[in-house]
Each structure stands twice: as C-alpha cells, then as structure tokens.
Amino acid sequence: MDKNKYIKRESYLNKLVIRRDNGEVKIITGPRRCGKSWLLSHIYKDYLLEQGVSPDNIIMLDFDRDDDKYDFNILDSRAVKEHIYSRIKNENENYYIFLDEIQELDNFERLVNGLNSHDNIDVYVTGSNSRFLSHDIRTIFRGRGNEIRVFPLSFREYCQEITDIREAWMMYSTFGGMPQLLHYNDNEQRINYLQNLWEKTYLDDVVERNNVRNELAISRLATSLCSSIGSLTNPARIANTLESVQKMKIDSKTVSSYIDYLENAFLFESAERYDVKGRRYYETNKKYYCIDIGLRNARLNFRQQEPTHIMENVLYNHLRILGYLVDVGIVESREMKNGKASYSQREIDFVANKGSQRYYIQSAYSIFSEEKREQELASLLKVSDSFKKIVVVGDEIMPYSDDNGIYFTGLFDFLLKDDWQ
Fold first, then answer.
1. Rounded to 5 degrees, what are φ and ψ at 411?
2. Percentage of residues of the chain with pLDDT beyond 90
3. Closest CA relative to residue 58, chosen from 84, 78, 37
4. Fewer CB within 10 Å, N side or C side of the chain?
5. pLDDT score of 173 more than 90
6. Structural contact between residues 36 and 150, judged by C-beta atoms closer than 8 angstroms
7. How far is it, in rounded angstroms, from Cα 316 to Cα 230?
8. 28 Cα distance to chain centroid
9. Which domains does the chain show, CATH number per domain?
10. Could you give phi then psi for residue 287, rounded to 5 degrees?
C-alpha cells in the first residue's frame, strides 16, 4: 500500500462531519490500533484543512507516546492545559482539539469539560478502555459526550485495497482488518504483528489497567473465547473448561470479571439470547465474538480455521460496524410429533436491530442438501412478524426470495451492502 494513500473510512468521517461544532465532546472509542488516531490525525484533519481551517487551529496531542516529541510533560494535566490554551490565539476563530488515548492522562475529565465549555473550541478524544463505554460517557462529560465507535476495517473497506474479491476474502478471513496489515507484504510480518498486538499491547494493557493478578489465567481465557466463538457459554462452563483442559483452577466469579475486562478493552463482544416470541432475554449463556477475525486466528496460532465459525464472526462484526445491536434469537414452540405434544427451542443466529429496523439472519456456510436447507429455515419459519428474514450462504449466488419470503444471498453480496431491502 502506498503510504501516501489511505482508506478514507467514509462512514466514520461522515459521523465526525455531522457532529462538527455541535457543542459536544466527540469520543472515538475502539480497540488499540484499529485506526482511531489515524481517523483524527489524517482523515478528519485533511477534511478540516480542505474546508479552510488553518493548520494552527488544529491542536493534536498523543498521550500514548513515550518519546520526546513534546517540550512539556505530556502526562501532567496542568502542563497540558497551559500548552493548549497558549495555542488558542483568537477567540473569534474556531479551534479543533484532538486528544489521543486521553485515558492515559490523570484527571482528564476536568480538562476536557473545561475546553468544551468554550464556544470556539471543538473537542475530540479517543479512548480504548472501559472508561469510554457509552454508559459512562454521560457521567464523565456531564451529558455532553457523543460516542463514535470505531472497528477494524470492514470487508468492504478492505476491498478498496484488494480488488480481487476472492483474494480479499482469503486475506481478510485469515488476517482480519487491522489497518497496519495493509503495509506488510508477507504473511510472516502479518502473523508477528497480530501476535505481538495480543502480548505486548492488549493483554499487557488489560492486566495493568485492571490490576490483574493472574496474568496466565486471563491469557488462557482470551484463547478459550477465541476457540469457542459463536458457541453458547457462561463463566461457570469456561471455568470448568480451563480446569479440565488447562489444569487451571479458577472460580466463575473471577472468569466473569476477566471477561468484562476483555470486553471493556473492545477485544470481544457478547450476544445475548433473546426470546423472539416472548420478547425477553435469557439470563444464562451468551455467545462471544472476537472484534477482529485476524486477532482471533492469531490467538489460536492460525490452527482452528473453521470456515463456518469464521464466517459467523465476520457477519456479526459486519452488523456491529453498521450500527446494529445484535442478539441470538430463540424461538420456542410446541409441536405435535408422533401424536404427542413436544416442546422445541430453535435458534436464529442473529437478530439485528437498529431503530425501527430489524433483520433475522442465518449464517449458512453451505446448504448441501434439502435436509440442511430445512434445518436452516426451521427457526425463521416460526417467526410470524413482518421483519425481513435472510439466509447468508458462503457460495456466490444470485440473491432471491423463496415462496416463504425468505431472502437468500451470498456472503460477498451481504458484506458489501449496508442494507438488504
């Protein structure tokens, strides 16, 4: 990839543009190295310059650096405040403040809220840990925070750089969408980069920030979650697995805390089980998905390359990138079988919701027989509402709807679209 070129990530740029000068702090969240800093310091900065904003009116500070770039203590909030205000020369001009990985600065809330109180200052911060989860933003920024969640590259973004779609899928489904990978020319570099991210960035950060005492346990827990993506589980079951397979004694309460730490670092997300007809959530068992399929594969040393699970994880991430909230659907029903009433519980891979939109989605890597087809459709046919029902298959097919109104589409077609009306 030409270093002078970059993927513009239009969807995120548009979110920043429409929030420009709106009086709120723009909080860009996501895992480390997913492109948050680049989004601000290059993509959005270039946009502002094109709009006529003076370079002197864009002030950028990176709190994740340990070099001598600055002539003041970058981790001293008082020194940071003095530096920023010394750069603001004219009260009649707008200034744009970019504060990268702001959680590294103690007492940052007061600094950010103070800056945001000025009508001519527009504040943007990035963060990669739980302090920037949406349920905390309202408190931290006094109700004046607006979160923009950033993910690694989507498959559609990835295809901007690799135009052969089959080659793009082979690379993406193996190494994922961390932006830095586009600068590497061989697989050894890609593998080393992803594995170093886990050991030297992600796990070290989680351990340090949460004062984790058992580093080996949380490391093996991360591996266990990667190994079981898309499978129903709970902390007690994971604790039993770690004890039986890894010979590691750990209680379910600790496992639950460690999972929270990994989710709060934006490394995994959980999908809850939702009773479609009863309109309620089940309290036990969830499915976990890795935020990036390349990170998942790297954690497993690229040994578990199950195409069905990889496809399911990529579909989940795609829906989340598009802004959908995603649950695992459960459809309960009573049926007559051999003259007797029986109770059944069928699963829909994804119930995707965004505002008034809802989709029921099945991930079916291959429908190789009529029996398999009936199996994939069984849960969808039990849903009586009018929301669209979709089956995504791993093959390239011409999209069509069957006699029941269920929409069938190929994987690539699904991943390259924003909606499926």
1. -60, -50
2. 78
3. 84
4. C
5. yes
6. yes
7. 9
8. 12
9. 10-149 (3.40.50.12060)
10. -110, 145
Are 279 and 234 in contact by the 8 Å Cβ rule? The answer is: no
Instruction: Say how many CA atoms lie within 13 Å of 25 toward its Cβ.
Output: 30
Task: Specify the 3-state DSSP secondary structure of 83.
Answer: helix
Pairing mode of beta strands 121-127, 325-337: unpaired
What pLDDT sits at residue 128?
Answer: 87
Summarised one tens digit per residue, pLDDT across range 129-149 is: 765 555 566 677 777 888 999
- Specify the pLDDT at position 103: 86
- Cα–Cα distance for residue pair 227/286, rounded to 1 Å: 15
Task: Name the amino acid, one letter, at 112.
Answer: V
- The per-residue DSSP string of 327-351 comes to EEEEEEEEEEETTEEEEEEEEEEEE
> How many Cβ atoms are within 10 Å of 77's Cβ, its own excluded?
15
What value, to the nearest 5°, has the Cα angle with vertex 287 and ends 282 and 290?
150
Nearest to 313 by CA among 330, 304, 9, 203: 304
Is residue 35 left, alpha or beta, with left meaning phi > 0 and alpha meaning psi from -120 to 50?
Answer: left
* Residue 75 · residue 106 · CB < 8 Å: yes
**pTM of the predicted model over 0.90:** yes
Mean pLDDT along residues 370-379: 90
Question: Of the candidates 134, 139, 128, 156, which has an alpha carbon nearest to the alpha carbon of residue 325?
Answer: 134
Query: Which stretches does DSSP call E strand in 117-234?
Result: 121-127, 145-149
pLDDT tens, position by position, 334-350: 776 777 777 788 999 99
Within its chain, how far is the Cα of 224 from the centroid?
19
pLDDT digits (tens, 9 = 90+) for 232-275: 999 999 999 998 888 889 999 999 999 999 999 999 999 999 99
Beta bridge partners, 348, equal 329
3-state secondary structure (DSSP) of residue 91: coil
pLDDT of residue 336: 64
Q: Over the stretch 276-297, which tens digit does the pLDDT of each residue have?
A: 999 999 988 999 999 999 999 9
Dihedral Cα 216, 218, 224, 226, nearest 10 deg: -120
